Amino acid sequence: MEGIPFLLVIVIVGFYLLSSIKILAEYERGVIFRLGRLLPVAKGPGVILVFAPIDRMVRISLRVDTIEVPPQDVITRDNVTVKVNAVIYFRVVEPRLAVTEVANFLFATSQLAQTTLRSVLGEVDLDDLLSKRDELNVRLQSILDEHTSPWGVKVTLVSVKQVDLPDQMIRAIGRQAEAEREKRAKIIHAEGEYTASEKLAMAAEVIQRQPAAIQLRYLQTLLDIGMEKNTTIVFPLPIDMLASLDHLIKGTQRKEADKS
């Protein structure tokens, strides 16, 4: 009977030691508070001892985590209201700071991301928001990383996912894009006409130096028509002949007018 209390003490001590053993994964670190004071180095990975209630451990994951920023109402610099959402990739690089410098680094990073998204995107025009998204992502990442660095958090990437435009703005952008396409089409058509006129002028100079070239061209045209099994025959009518007929008609009319 005298050995029972001793065995009981051994069992209690054994259970206490077993409960003090903590296993941390490779991506985890344990921030230890001993009698309320922070230990200088985070523990882990592997097997560590946490002697409760003297010690208190906070597990911190070092893996890359994501936060989806909910859609934010943003007024751009040119007074267009849009809804923008984004996703943030970050990881804890200093577990002790993530525990001691901020109450909840996940919530704090999320709130900071929302305010930063509204403030940064509100300083740009709608065209820049749609066309220069990569530059805006880099700027957002730089600002967030600067503000979360004292918390031991490293923001690795910020990506603006979607920009929701009002229906009237979508229609206006569609009309603008259609007008741009028509403009490019007219410019291309004009450039083609200009190039064709230059080539025709060069051909006219060649024909003027070699009058037989027009006859060869006429024969080539007849050959092309014949290859298509067409019964149509084309006869060239010189423009000079029409001009002569016009002068003849005007001369006849003038003589009749003089007689009358």
Q: What topology emerges from the helices and strands here?
A:
Elements: H1 3-20, E1 21-24, E2 28-34, E3 37-38, E4 46-49, E5 55-61, E6 65-75, E7 81-92, H2 95-100, H3 105-121, H4 126-131, H5 133-148, E8 153-164, H6 167-209, H7 212-227, H8 239-259
Antiparallel strand pairs: 1-4, 2-3, 2-5, 6-7, 7-8
Write out key terms for the chains shown.
single chain, 260 residues, alpha+beta, Tetrahydropterin Synthase, Chain A, 3-stranded antiparallel β-sheet, 8 strands, 23% strand, rod-shaped
Derived structural class: alpha+beta
**CATH architecture label name of the largest domain:** 2-Layer Sandwich
Instruction: Kindly report the CATH topology of the largest domain.
Output: Tetrahydropterin Synthase, Chain A
What's the N-to-C terminus distance?
A: 161 Å
- The stretches of 5 or more residues where confidence is low (pLDDT under 50) are none
Largest sheet, if any?
A: 3 strands, antiparallel
Mean pLDDT: 84
CATH class of the largest domain: Alpha Beta
| Helix/strand order, N-terminal first | HEEEEEEEHHHHEHHH
Estimate the helix proportion, in percent: 55-70%
The number of distinct β-strands equals 8
Spatial strand order of the main sheet:
3-2-5
CATH homology superfamily of the largest domain: Band 7 domain
The count of domains is: 4
Instruction: Give Rg in angstroms.
Output: 43 Å
Give a short synopsis of this structure.
With 260 residues, the protein is of the alpha+beta class. The chain has 4 domains: 3-60, no CATH class; 65-165, Band 7 domain (Tetrahydropterin Synthase, Chain A); 167-209; 225-259, no CATH class. It has helices spanning 3-20, 95-100, 105-121, 126-131, 133-148, 167-209, 212-227, 239-259, and strands at 21-24, 28-34, 37-38, 46-49, 55-61, 65-75, 81-92, 153-164.
